[in-house]
Amino acid sequence: MTEHEIIEKIKKEYSIVLEKGDVHLPNKAPIKKIGNHQVQIHLGFDSYARLSVEVASAGKNAK
């Protein structure tokens, strides 16, 4: 899962627009493992939020 995919999901679900530089992934690399991962979001100035992102298998029933 890339920064772009997270940004698009947040935009679609919550109508919040973020820039690529606002999303900080663990290890500064796309998330490739299934499970829960902590992602840091830059809100402005020195404000940050942590989100838990769940990565699931892209099986036939995936949405």
Strands, count? 3
Distance between the termini: 14 Å
Tertiary shape: globular
Q: Quickly count the domains.
A: 1
* Average pLDDT reading: 90
Q: Which structural class matches the secondary elements?
A: alpha+beta
Write structural notes for this entry:
19% of the residues lie in helices and 33% in strands. It is of the alpha+beta class. The chain has one domain. A hairpin with a 2-residue loop joins strand 2 and strand 3.
Q: Which short descriptors sum up this protein?
A:
63 residues; 3 strands; single chain; alpha+beta; 3-stranded antiparallel β-sheet
List the helices and strands and how they pair.
Layout: H1 3-14, E1 23-24, E2 35-44, E3 47-55
Antiparallel strand pairs: 1-2, 2-3
Task: Characterize this entry briefly.
The chain is built from one helix and three strands. The chain has 63 residues and is of the alpha+beta class. A hairpin with a 2-residue loop joins β2 and β3.
